[in-house]
Amino acid sequence: MYKYNDFDTAFVTERNAQFRAQVERRIDGSLTEDEFKPLRLMNGLYLQLHAYMLRVAVPYGSLNSAQMNTLALLAEKWDKGYGHFTTRQNIQYNWPKLSDVPDMLDALAEVGMHAIQTSGNTIRNVTSDHFAGAAADEIEDPRPVAELIRQWSTDHPEFQFMGRKFKIAVGAAAKDRAVLKAHDLAVRIVRNDAGETGYQILVGGGLGRTPMIGKVINDFLPRADLLPYIESVVSVWNQIGRRDNKYKARIKITVHEHGIDDIRARVDARFALIRPTFTGADQDLLAEIKTHFVAPGFRSGSTETYDAAYKGDPVFRAWADTNLAEHRQADHTIVTISIKKHGATPGDASAEQMRVMADLAVKYGYDELRISHEQNVILPHVHKSDLPALHAKLKAHGLGTANIGLISDIIACPGMDYCALATARSIPVAEQIATRFDEMKLEHDIGHLQIKISGCINACGHHHVAHIGILGLDRAGVENYQITLGGDATWSAAVGERAGPGFAYDEIVPAVERIVAAYLDIRTSAEETFLETYRRVGLAPFKAALYPEAVKKVA
Amino acid sequence: MARAFTPKVITANALIEGDVIYLTDDDQWSRELSQAELITDEAHAQLRLLDASAQVGEVVGAYLADAKAGPNGPEPTHFREEFRRTGPSNYAHGKQEAEANV
Asked: Is B95 on the interface with A (CB under 8 A)?
């Protein structure tokens, strides 16, 4: 885990002191809301439908138990006892009072956390693979690079007033678990034929109103060139990006309008200019950062207790089958804790649950936790022999749901229950779908199926890259839900295809049921996933299932 | 032709708590939509909005929201204002919690 040095601490302390004074000046009337709004947004404070919302960064989704306990403290002391983990590995508090926020930020600073650049037209919190440092399929731990980018981008003077926000993700594994291709810029650590590691850089991905899949701008960037290269990309976009129209301001539109080759040429020219100004301090810093991310000394021991529980306890076995992932150490495993209990709000954890997870990280997980963009919490390193005890504790606190990757492991944005931008609700739709499929006891039979729900076109719920995507809209004053099918959030990323006319609020769950029934009917075997079936047969059979009346009319 | 003016209330968020609030006809801010002043005259609406927006020490983001007359005072005409009036649907937080504590 990265530990703040004196500079980091001084910087965050200074920012918090500034913001405390700004809040005071807003409350005493010296600042108008127009003056205050950009200042609060620079510190992650939004005003939503019912209250303020504080978005706290969990850099690249990594935290330790002290940090998780502080997140619990914030929930309990200054909010309503819970927090909401987001699709960009952040946590949001939905009910802070303006006058309490400076104290919340000070509490966060004590454990090396902040809310800087979780809003506004800057480089946002850098995200990464939630299995980073543990996955069997990674070349190296991507987090030191993510931390380097965090430090470089924090308060970067050139990038504080851009045309729009800029999101960066870093991955280093064969499998993409960080939705790299839907980011403004993605860094993928790769190895070439000569065995050297370098970076593959993608640009121009993004969801929202114009979904685009990122394109490779550099196939193999030498390691020492990373920061000047990223700086060149952001700098080129910052200059030529569309500032006349905020819907066309993201780099995906710039890449689309200019073409990737033109952008590459501009970036190369910029890079030639600024590369000499990077004289190696960044590489020294990276080397220093890497020392913070040394893997824990993994313990060894028999895994017999695990084998026995797996054989003897069907509830444990179901959980182990869905919620565990392969660790690079054979006797260890990666545990995903589902915070998607059937019928509950996806991504919400109570203060008590946060403390339980922090305690479990201390007891069984080398004091490490991760937050996934899929809105779950991960214990990245657990010895298999500890799993039965861990599972028992999770179950006792409503954290033992065995549904990772299944139909009830739904990504959902806060939607119109909280968000001022939303055009419809997301959370109750997610709750109802999860409850329905749990009642039917079908989800393990259905297998891997990702539903993602956004409550507006901005697509925080990643609906475009869902196997079944749901987009909530306002159609003539009534909530209406559009369905897209066949999206993919992995390395084979694809934007889903719109199925047809939308569905009313009370029709959306039955519509999803019809899609799933059609899939179960046409799959070749239980091994063929929903996405594989969709790719084999296309939209037509699902459309027929969704709109039976239209089929009747044609017939 | 200009669109006919539909009845409105003035709504905003409270500066400190962020709560949804409504302007009453005696210039108070209420947490209850039913106590809001229902404005039926367009010129009056603009004046009232100016008054409300000037109260920078108390409120944030005042705007005119469509409403209709009901038996117990103004009611929302759009689901967004219905949710703002009621609170989120996943927890009885915000106003629902406040009412439960009465």
From this structure: yes
